[in-house]
Amino acid sequence: MGAQKTGLLRTPWFQLTLALVVVVLLVVAPLLLPIPVNQTLARIGVFAVAVLGLNVIMGYTGQVSLGQIFFLGLGAYVTAYGVENGWNIALVFLAAVVIPGVVGLIVALAAARLGGLAIAMVTIALPIIGVPLAKRLSDVTGGSQGISARFSSAPDWTGLANDQWQYYLVLGIGGISFLLVFNLVRGKYGRAFRIVKENEAVAGAMGISPYRYKVLAFTIASMVGGVSGFLYMVVVQYTSPETLAFHHSISLLAAMVVGGAGSIIGSLIGGVYYVLVPNFTNEVAPTLTSLIQGAILLLVLFILPGGIASLPRVLRRWTGRSSRSSPPASSPPEASAPSSDPSPSTPPNTSPSTSSTTPPSTASVKEDSP
User: How many CB atoms lie within 10 A of CB 233?
Assistant: First the structure.
C-alpha cells in the first residue's frame, strides 16, 4: 500500500493537479484575506526570493556566502534612486537586477579562486562596507535617514487595493524567479554546480571548470538578490543602511538552513521562517528572541539535517524501515493430502543383476586408467 501511495504521488498528472490547486489558492487568497495577512504573505515572498539566491551559491554550489543581504539592499537602493529620478519602472527593474549582478560578478572574479573561510571573509566584508558607505553617500541613499519610494500603488483599472496589487507583483515576479532557477538547477548547469560542490578535483577531471561555475553561481545569486531588493521596495517602500546590516545576512543563512539547503521548496520555507519566526518569538518573549531562534535552528539541525524540506524523505525512510522490520504474518501449515497411488515412492530393488551390470561412470574410468 505504501508503494502504491508513493507511486501515485510521483505520477505527472497528480503533480500537475497539485500545482494547479496551489496556483489557484495563491491567486484567490489576497481577495479573501485581510490587509495585514496580505502584507505578511508579500514579505514572505520577498525573502523567499532572497533565500533562493543564497541557495544558488551555497545550497547548490557549496560556496560560503555571508553577504547576500548586501545585494538585496543594493537592489532596493537602485530601485529607490530610479523611482525618485522618474525612470520608467521597467528600466528601474532592469537596473535593480543588472547592477547587483555586475557587482557580484566583480566580487566573484576575485573571490571564486578562494575557498572555505577565505571566500566567507570576502563576502562578510560586503555588508560591513555597505552600511557606512550608504550613510556617507547621502545624496544618493538619503544617509542614515534612508530613502522612500512609493511606486506600487494599485492602478485604477485593476480595481484592487494596494496590498492586493503588491501581493500580485511579488507573486508574479517571484514566481518567475523561482521557475527560472528551478529550470537552471534541473539542467546541465545544475548538474555542474553539484559536481563542483561535491569535489572540485573530480569536476576539473570531467572538463568542468570550478572557477567558471563558481563565478556563474555567484553572479546569478547576486542578480536574484537584486530582484528581492526590487520586491522589497514594492512591499516596504523604504530602505536605509539598516537593510544592509550583517545580522540580516546571518538570518538569511539560518532561514536557508532551516528551510533546506539545495532545495527550491526549502527557499519558500526559509522565507516563511525569516518573516514569521521573529514575529512569533517577539510575541512570546521579546528579550529572548535570539535565544529562541537559536534553539529552533539547533533543533532542526539535529532532527532534520537537510532542513524542513527533507521531512517527507525522512518520513518515507522511517516508514520503509518499520515495514521491513515488522515480521511477516505466519500462515497455518497446510495438511498434506494422502497419495492416491498405492505404490511406494521408492521401488524396491528387486533386480540385483541390473545394478551389477551398470557401467562405471566416466570419473571412475579415468581414475582406473593408467
Answer: 28
Q: Which residues contact 200 (CB under 8 A, 6 or more apart)?
A: 210
Which of 51, 57, 74 lies closest to 129, judged by CA? 74
Contact 44, 276 (CB under 8 A): yes
Rounded CA-CA distance 226/94 in Å is: 9
Helix, strand, coil percent content, the chain, rounded in steps of 5: 75, 0, 25
Q: All 3 cell numbers of residue 28?
A: 484567490
Q: Which residue, chain included where needed, has cell 515488522?
A: 326
Question: How many angstroms separate the CA atoms of 119 and 275, rounded?
Answer: 28
Query: 222: Cβ–Cβ under 8 A, 6 or more apart, which residues?
Result: 53, 71, 100, 101, 103, 104, 105, 107, 108
d(CA 256, CA 50): 10
At 147 the three-state DSSP class reads strand
From first to last of its 370 residues, what are the pLDDT tens digits of the chain?
445 555 556 677 777 888 788 889 999 999 999 999 999 999 999 999 999 999 999 989 888 888 899 999 999 999 999 999 989 999 999 999 999 999 999 998 888 777 667 788 888 999 999 999 999 998 889 888 899 988 888 898 988 999 999 999 999 999 999 999 999 999 899 999 999 888 888 888 888 888 899 999 999 999 999 999 999 999 999 999 999 999 999 999 999 999 999 889 999 999 999 999 988 888 888 888 888 888 888 998 898 888 899 888 888 877 766 656 655 555 555 544 444 444 444 444 444 443 444 444 444 433 333 3
Spatial separation of the C-alpha atoms in residues 270 and 261, rounded to whole Å = 9
The C-alpha angle with vertex 69 and arms to 65 and 75, in degrees rounded to 5, equals 125
Please state the pTM of the whole predicted model.
Answer: 0.82
